[in-house]
Amino acid sequence: MMGKLLVVGSMAFDSVRTPFGEASDVLGGSATYFSTAASFFTGVELIAVVGEDFPEQHVDFLRSRGIDLEGLERRKGKTFRWKGEYSYQLNEAQTLETHLNVLETFRPHIPDQYRTPQMLFLGNIDPELQLDVLEKVERPRIVACDTMNFWIEGKREALWRTLEKVDILVINDGEARALGEDSNLVQVAKRILSRGPKNLIIKRGEYGVLMFNEKHTFGAPALPLEQVKDPTGAGDTFAGGFMGHLASTGDYSNEGLRRAIIFGSVMASFTVEEFSLDRLRHLDKRQIEDRYREFRRLTHFEDI
Ligand code: AMP
């Protein structure tokens, strides 16, 4: 197994309503989904903060996945909370409430043993915190980053400063359009790639994923699923599968990135089948490999 994968991001209580049900104060957060998905492929180190109200059983779950929790801080106050809603067209969440709580004053402390990561994922969190973590570690081989409208609208300049230093930006199409200030994704990609990231991965919900870099464009569909209950966390789960797989192979070539995108898509396809992290709780390697093969069949065609 190749080097270590470090993630900083949010840990949350989510309240979510979709046309297929609802859940209140369930386990969520960008770091939570990311690290759980990545843990199926590689060792993960986590930096995040929770409040006094965060149940030990959630920590135990992450520990049971083998995730290194040395960088998880528990502080006085309440855990970050997010409330969102999805319409029948499940692709984009509408944020109803964001309560930063302990995230508001969080200044990540990096344990010494975390300072030389092979790969770093800057999960959806304040871009100033993302930069802070990036500057406190030795330059990793690969730095990837996610964000969302909340930060694109509220901290655009800080976000661009962070993006100057990342290799791969992973965002959804709505966010990409807001950041690139254009409706055409090819134009958006050009603009974003000219300002730092060498690769841009745009997540398009049920329509799959597009990756742009200077030389290539790659597209992968999402697996058509019989049941989608809650898309929350699909993006972070995608990123966890993608980075986890990359960390396990150490193959950062264009082909390696493409294969990792498929593993990211495989992982996301599980998360959306249940609320919160419920589907990931009873997932095994064999199911992951079966779905990887399903992806190959879905996208295979013969040339004449
Ligand atoms: P996604 O993978 O894009 O669906 O991300 C969903 C997760 O992002 C949820 O579990 C939320 O707890 C978390 N989240 C939502 N808003 C924010 C925010 N402003 N900062 C950090 N995390 C957030």
Walk me through the topology.
Blueprint: E1 5-8, E2 12-18, E3 21-28, H1 30-38, E4 44-50, H2 56-64, E5 68-74, E6 80-85, E7 94-99, E8 119-122, H3 127-136, E9 142-145, H4 149-154, H5 156-163, E10 168-172, H6 173-180, H7 185-193, E11 199-203, E12 209-213, E13 217-220, H8 234-249, H9 254-271, H10 278-281, H11 285-299
Helix pairs in contact: 1-8, 3-5, 6-7, 8-9, 9-11
Bound molecules: adenosine monophosphate.
Outline type: globular
Top CATH class: Alpha Beta
**Using only CA atoms, what is the Rg?**
18 Å
Number of helices: 11
Runs with pLDDT <50, length 5+?
A: none
Structure explained in plain terms:
With 304 residues, this protein is of the alpha/beta class. Helices cover 37% and strands 24% of the residues. The chain is built from 11 helices and 13 strands. The chain has helices at 30-38, 56-64, 127-136, 149-154, 156-163, 173-180, 185-193, 234-249, 254-271, 278-281, 285-299, and strands spanning 5-8, 12-18, 21-28, 44-50, 68-74, 80-85, 94-99, 119-122, 142-145, 168-172, 199-203, 209-213, 217-220. It has a 9-stranded mixed beta sheet, sandwiched between helices. A 4-stranded mixed beta sheet has the order 3-2-6-7. Adenosine monophosphate binds at residues 10, 12, 14, 28-30, 33, 82, 98, 124-125, 148, 150, 232-236. The site of adenosine monophosphate has 18 residues, from strand 2, helix 1 and helix 8.
